[in-house]
């Protein structure tokens, strides 16, 4: 499957998923109420746990597939590693579910600020969340493996189906059948089980796994030892990164009332959309980068790295600008709730900027992952976590959600400049200044100037209805995309080549 087709398929799948998620999920606030939506926010905060539970083994399997997918003799090795991971994850899931069932009463009674929500209802919802996470872990295992095989057109087709079931189906449930949060999470569990089964069947068929393999319940310890250094480094980094980037969400779930935490869930949803904008490119980018490194094509690696950086910047900088400057209007358009938009708008500004630093900093991780050397990442994450986690907790208790947002943004900015310089100078000497000054800074500066000009337009957003707000936001976003596109040398090059081919054909 061609690289461009994979990116296109990823964008179609992600565009559909993001539109459905961002448009439909906030409407749950109307049917579940702010407290019920707070439980949805808790569920959203638990999703990053999947990166911890895979203990670095899912990326390790994905890398094995990306490196050896064209060598038929290596399929037996991949099959054995897959079965080993499945057995480990099965045991791990039983442990996770047991822990969540044991601690769910404590979470409901002592951690969450429940307002008037019955404790037994919250306990039941948390238990279901634990089971959902268990099935999502297997879904991630099969999904990442299918991505490594570059079967992304099929995968995005299935993702569209699952997204429709998960979000539109839940909307139908809440609007016409039941507004009970327990029924909502039971429905989400059904969607997660369906997803895991579909992805598992597809991956097994791609590996041409014989029937006798299905009855093989044996862990290949030798293979696990081979991938252990790589997986262990990623696992340790995941632990550190989890605490550094998710600690704010868990601390605030204890400090804020459940209804207010529901509003914070809107901040999480919208700001996470910034990261989702680059996922389609990165899903196609990492396997290709890994493959080029394995063939020793360093010049091709550098060229691809810089081109993808510019493309991501063109996409992500306008989104960051709109979310940061017009966050209050975005929340109002999505929910129709002025209370939620007034609370979330100022906080969205800082989370948007922070996630922008995070998105661009992800390139340095992809570079290390493609090379297969994550030692430097481990050191950086260790130092960053030692300083950032205590600061996040301090600001959470003393300044609330806005203080956490500001502190997180500043720390991610500092991390971006330090980590990008260290990684580039270590693994790709001579790249860093070109990457910053030629691939990022021109697009960033022009986009920033353009959004500043837009913010000077005296539009009385508060007197407008949701449709009018939406029209203005869409127009502003399109303008910023055009500006950033024209600024990028890579985008101009491909666009002019496309025009020339059309004229000569």
Percent of residues in beta strands? under 5%
- What spatial form do the alpha-carbon principal axes imply? globular
How far apart, in Å, are the first and last alpha carbons?
Answer: 24 Å
Overall strand count: 0
C-alpha-based Rg, rounded: 23 Å
Biggest beta sheet attributes: none
Number of individual domains: 2
Assembly form of the protein: single chain
Order of helices and strands: HHHHHHHHHHHHHHHHHH
Q: Mean pLDDT, rounded to whole units?
A: 86
Structural class: mainly alpha
What's the total helix number?
Answer: 18
Helix content: over 70%
How would you describe this structure to a colleague?
With 505 residues, the chain is mainly alpha-helical. The chain has 2 domains: 1-219, no CATH class; 232-505, no CATH class. Helix content is 86%, strand content 0%. The protein is built from 18 helices and no strands. The protein is globular and about 60 Å long. The model has no long low-confidence stretch (mean pLDDT 86).
């Amino acid at each position: 499957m061609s690289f461009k087709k994979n990116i296109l398929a990823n964008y179609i799948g992600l565009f559909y998923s993001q539109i459905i998620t961002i448009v439909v999920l906030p409407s749950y606030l109307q049917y579940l109420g702010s407290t019920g939506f707070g439980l949805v926010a808790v569920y959203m905060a638990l999703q990053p746990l999947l990166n911890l539970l895979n203990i670095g083994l899912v990326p390790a399997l994905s890398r094995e597939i990306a490196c050896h997918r064209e060598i038929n003799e290596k399929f037996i090795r991949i099959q054995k590693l897959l079965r080993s991971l499945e057995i480990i994850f099965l045991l791990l899931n039983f442990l996770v579910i047991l822990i969540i069932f044991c601690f769910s009463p404590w979470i409901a009674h002592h951690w969450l600020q429940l307002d008037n929500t019955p404790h037994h209802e919250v306990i039941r919802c948390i238990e279901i969340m634990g089971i959902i996470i268990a099935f999502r872990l297997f879904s991630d295992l099969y999904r990442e493996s299918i991505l490594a095989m570059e079967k992304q057109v099929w995968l995005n087709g299935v993702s569209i189906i699952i997204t429709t079931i998960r979000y539109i189906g839940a909307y139908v449930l809440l609007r016409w059948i039941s507004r009970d949060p327990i029924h909502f999470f039971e429905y989400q569990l059904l969607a997660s089980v369906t997803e895991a089964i579909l992805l598992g069947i597809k991956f097994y068929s791609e590996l041409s796994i014989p029937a006798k393999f299905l009855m093989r319940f044996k862990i290949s310890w030798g293979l696990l030892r081979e991938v252990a250094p790589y997986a262990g480094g990623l696992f340790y980094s995941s632990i550190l990164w989890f605490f550094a980037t998710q600690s704010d969400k868990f601390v605030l779930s204890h400090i804020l009332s459940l209804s207010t935490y529901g509003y914070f869930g809107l901040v999480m949803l919208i700001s996470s959309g910034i990261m989702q904008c680059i996922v389609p490119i990165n899903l196609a980018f990492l396997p290709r980068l890994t493959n080029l490194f394995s063939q020793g094509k360093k010049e091709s690696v550098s060229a691809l790295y810089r081109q993808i950086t510019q493309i991501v910047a063109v996409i992500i900088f306008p989104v960051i600008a709109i979310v940061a400057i017009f966050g209050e209007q975005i929340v109002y358009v999505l929910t129709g709730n002025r209370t939620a938009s007034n609370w979330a708008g100022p906080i969205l500004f800082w989370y948007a900027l922070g996630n922008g630093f995070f998105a661009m900093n992800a390139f340095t991780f992809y570079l290390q992952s493609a090379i297969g050397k994550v030692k430097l990442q481990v050191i950086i994450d260790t130092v960053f976590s030692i300083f950032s986690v205590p600061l996040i907790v301090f600001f959470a208790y003393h300044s609330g959600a806005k203080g956490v947002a500001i502190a997180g943004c500043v720390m991610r900015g500092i991390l971006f400049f330090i980590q990008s310089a260290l990684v580039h100078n270590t693994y790709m000497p001579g790249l860093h200044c070109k990457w910053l000054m030629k691939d990022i800074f021109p697009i960033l500066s022009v986009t920033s100037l353009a959004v500043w000009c837009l913010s000077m337009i005296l539009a009385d957003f508060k007197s407008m209805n949701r449709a009018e707000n939406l029209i203005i936001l869409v127009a502003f976003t399109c303008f910023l995309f055009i500006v950033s596109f024209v600024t990028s040398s890579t985008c101009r090059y491909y666009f002019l080549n496309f025009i020339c081919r059309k004229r000569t054909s």
